[in-house]
Amino acid sequence: MSTAYEAFQVFEQEATAAIEAARNVADLEQVRILFLGKSKGRLKDLQSELGKATPAERPAIGQAFNDMKLRVTQLFDARVEVLSRPESQPRDFDVTLPGNLPRLGREHPITQTIEEFKEIIGRFGFTVDDGPELEDEYHNFDALNIPKDHPARDPLDNFYLAAAKTANGQPILLRSQTSTVQIRVMERTKPPVRIVSVGRVYRPDEIDRTHHQMFHQMEGLMVGEGVTMATLKSVLKMFAAAYLGEDVEIRFRPSFFPFTEPSVEVDVRWRDGWLELGGAGMVDPQVLENVGYDPETITGFAFGLGIARFCMLRHGIDDIRLFYENDLRFLKQF
Ligand code: FA5
């Protein structure tokens, strides 16, 4: 009889050791088959010991068997639970290594500025329109009243396409100003007009801290009855204050553009002096005529602002090249 109790004890010790040694659920399943398996497990063999006991011994041995079986199965179930937890699953990497943070993208500062410009100018009732970056001479110069011999047309001051011409034989160039869109919009719209157009323009300028060869402008055009220079100055002042702050100091300087009369340049305080933000003026009657408007009954103003220069002022950046070099260490700050 002592052999049955001894056999139970040996079984319990060995099963316990095997359960505790199992490192994963698969190991544990092998242990289960070996010790507790219904058909061939060692527990099944032990059960036969019960049959050998006399009727008098049987209740005590049966009780001992059941107690032992319960302890082993409970230990087994507890181990299954532990080894099934996610943190117990095998890992093939070192969790203590620093992780790779996903790099979140964001809008380029110029794009952010453009979006804000559209939002601010929208409050003054301007809608957004668009024009092509590849232009013909007519829209970039002729319709804007720029004489044939004007230095602005110089091939050295423009990016002309060497090989391509329009269907009617005109030279094609990368537009040098967004003022081209004034013409395109007026050609297809009856007054009143109140639009802005934002986009890239191209000039082979010498690159320095305030100049690039590809840069962004926002063109504005308001045409209708009773539009005056006073309206223009108010819109530009309010626009600059909305983007750069109420205390912004701007000035209007008399200037000349072939497509506006009178013309001004708009400057803002910058470092020890002034930074030019854009050109503007009253649309020249000749330009209105070129697009089929009647300069006797309507007037208009137009402006063209350098977008990156506003962005420089807002953020205290003193070199425009940073916006176009696209160094992530710079861009990440916006
Ligand atoms: C023009 O381009 C005119 N089309 C503006 C205009 C529109 C006048 C409507 C009248 C009516 P300007 O060449 O001055 O003007 O350029 C306008 C602004 O673009 C400048 O004040 C400046 O802010 C910006 N800009 C000009 N050249 C560069 C450059 N190379 N790099 C960066 N910004 C520039």
From TrEMBL:
One of its GO terms (cellular component) is cytoplasm. It is found in: Cytoplasm. Coiled coil: none annotated. Binds 2 magnesium ions per tetramer. The keyword Nucleotide-binding applies. GO terms for biological process: phenylalanyl-tRNA aminoacylation. Belongs to the class-II aminoacyl-tRNA synthetase family. Phe-tRNA synthetase alpha subunit type 1 subfamily. Tetramer of two alpha and two beta subunits. This is Phenylalanine--tRNA ligase alpha subunit. It comes from Planctopirus limnophila (strain ATCC 43296 / DSM 3776 / IFAM 1008 / Mu 290).
